[in-house]
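Per reviewer request, we include the raw input and output of the structure prediction for the construct analysed in the revised manuscript.
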Amino acid sequence: MESKSTLDIDLLEYLEGLITPRRRELFLKILSMRTRFLTVALEDVYQMHNASAVIRSCDAFGLQEAHLIEGRFGRRLDKNIAMGAQQWVDIHRHQTSEACMDALREKGYRIIATVPRGDAQSISDFDLKTPAAFFFGTEKEGLSPGVLAEADGAVYIPMYGFTKSLNVSVAAAILLQELRERLNKTDLNWGLSESDRLEKRMDWTCKTIHSAGEIIKRFYSQKSGKE
């Protein structure tokens, strides 16, 4: 059973009154297509622009969260390349791949490795029966032996030329577009919960309003004065 949100609806409605109706309707439209059913995890991606481009793809294809494993190279997200997508996608950072996999499994995700080919299955054959987290490795080395050994499955992107590998951000975009289109055609419960949508409405609205923190303090100060 879905838990009820503790979010202050009066505050949300007040704050939404400070943004344009068009902006509010855009938030509602995008949230209706958001999903946590699919997510991605980037394992120690070195090139900053690659990590940032993947976050943009997550936003473009409606994924609400992404995971960054940053134990080797530190933070790899450039807000200029992500072009604001990091505001709308929930980014979770991990020091190790093991910690990331453990956290995702606790949430019910299958761990799926993305590989050049080998014994993997094509993304077009991947079964979308339960939530899945797709792991992408470093540009040259690919995924670590630990992830490959612990993954619940592996997928590859079919290619028909001399080139047998893709830039990690390109690969992520192709995979997400393919799987998102298929997910939309299923009867799976892939959307955000009602409480999750309310929380993201609040989050996105606050990010849109200048000095939102001060406005919220003033709202509660005036509210307590009336009680």
